[in-house]
Automatic annotation (TrEMBL):
Record organism: Polynucleobacter kasalickyi
Pfam family, one: OsmC
Protein name: OsmC-like protein
Species lineage: Bacteria, Pseudomonadati, Pseudomonadota, Betaproteobacteria, Burkholderiales
Highest taxon of source: Bacteria
Length: 401
């Protein structure tokens, strides 16, 4: 069931189409993913993501499990992130095979993401991290083990999302509460003064009725969770006084053709629903032409995860929050030979009754607890294995060794 609107829109749809007649030739390899996201009812949120004025734009939703007081109507943020990693690697393998004139009968990826959250929202010492990312390549093609090993390493090192996870990025913020700008500490404050409140833009985008959508659903639930809803009076697991949880998401995906992929994500711990996604690789449209690209899914996941933790800290401390929306700008360099210290910006707009110091605490704690901000801001290990023609040729190698 789609609980996000009453107009029979698909869960994911295009709100803006790429037109190559307007495409401006690129003189550099840097792209900036812009995500404008807003709270809906309950735990649900939606994002409008694009990579610039001339790219396609995609609406992407998120929800939480019934155990976390959600309706389980769309993937959780960490599931969307797992999907983005799968898609990015599938695309890299396809491009490398094409460049090397290698024909394949199967290109599949399995990604196990492990995150940890530990501490207490009440004490203010809770913190999240990416514990591990374990990737399995499953390839059927006529090539040697040595060649396959080299090509898998090349895919991992060229993937912009894997590079973002491996090498720390810096994040800065701005916040406006009830239309008033609140000054943050210098170490947190963004220097981008021109970012404006996205509320009216989002309202206009929400009124768009999608046309000419793909006959294949871009996002659909394949298996329902067996989790029981939180009982009346019971504290959701994410709001317990002391938390020490490891979260495990598994994703499995495969290449459909040169441009399309199909991936699934499943929460293994805690046990959750299985969602299926389609994606598109387009040489000129970084956002994805027929379906969202890896970077589009990643942009939505990053914004959603931060917003969830912003609200969670507000809930624990009984802070009056309303109409939360953010603009997140995340750069990626698509040229792996460029060594740039990239940073991303999170711009928060919220209404409510709270002081400037509490607003600063909300930003600080949401940043501290956001799983995906932690993943981008730290150096993380990548483990991988390779299965070639149904035979494992590499088992759990570490990328940095």
């Amino acid at each position: 069931m789609n609980n996000f609107d009453d107009q029979h829109k698909p869960l994911i749809y295009s709100f803006k189409r790429f037109d190559n007649k307007e495409q401006i030739s690129k003189s550099h390899s840097l792209v900036n993913i812009c995500t404008e996201a807003i709270d809906l009812n309950g735990m649900q949120k939606e994002a409008f993501v694009s990579a610039g004025r001339n790219s396609s734009g995609w609406r992407i939703p998120t929800d939480e499990s019934v155990q976390l007081r959600g309706e389980d109507a769309a993937p959780q943020p960490l599931a969307l992130h797992n999907a983005s990693v799968q898609i990015c690697l599938l695309n890299q393998v396809k491009q490398i095979f094409k460049a090397n004139q290698i024909e394949s009968q199967k290109i599949a990826i399995k990604v196990d993401s492990y995150f940890n959250i530990k501490g207490s929202f009440y004490r203010g010492d809770v913190k999240s991290c990416l514990k591990d990312l374990v990737i399995q390549f499953d390839i059927q093609a006529n090539l040697s083990e040595e060649k396959m090993s080299a090509l898998a390493l090349e895919a991992l090192r060229k993937s912009p999302i894997i590079r973002a996870i491996r090498y720390p990025m810096k994040n800065t913020f701005s916040i406006k509460a009830n239309g008033k700008k609140i000054k943050l500490p210098n170490s947190m404050q963004s220097g981008l003064e021109q970012v404006s409140d996205p509320l009216e833009r989002i309202k206009a985008l929400q009124n768009i009725i999608p046309e000419n959508q793909s006959k294949n659903k871009i996002l659909e639930k394949k298996v329902n969770s067996t989790l029981e809803p939180t009982k009346p009076g019971e504290i959701p697991v994410g709001l317990l006084p002391d938390i020490d949880r490891t979260i495990h998401i598994r994703g499995t995906g495969f290449a459909i053709n040169d441009s399309e992929n199909e991936v699934q994500t499943s929460f293994f711990h805690p046990l959750g629903s299985v969602f299926q996604y389609r994606s598109d690789l387009h040489n000129e449209d970084v956002s994805g032409f027929q379906a969202p690209s890896a970077l589009t899914y990643h942009g939505a996941a990053l914004a959603f995860c931060f917003m969830t933790q912003f609200h969670r800290y507000g809930s624990v401390n009984k802070i009056d929050l309303d109409a939360l929306r953010i603009v997140q700008l995340t750069p990626f360099d698509l040229d792996p030979t460029n060594d740039q210290n990239l940073s991303f910006d999170t711009h928060i707009f919220v209404d409510g009754d709270f002081s400037d110091s509490i607003a600063t605490d909300l930003v600080r704690m949401a940043h501290q607890v956001c799983f995906l901000h932690a993943a981008l801001e730290s150096k993380n290990d990548i483990h991988y294995s390779i299965q070639l023609n149904d035979v494992e040729i590499i088992h759990q190698n570490q990328l940095d060794k």
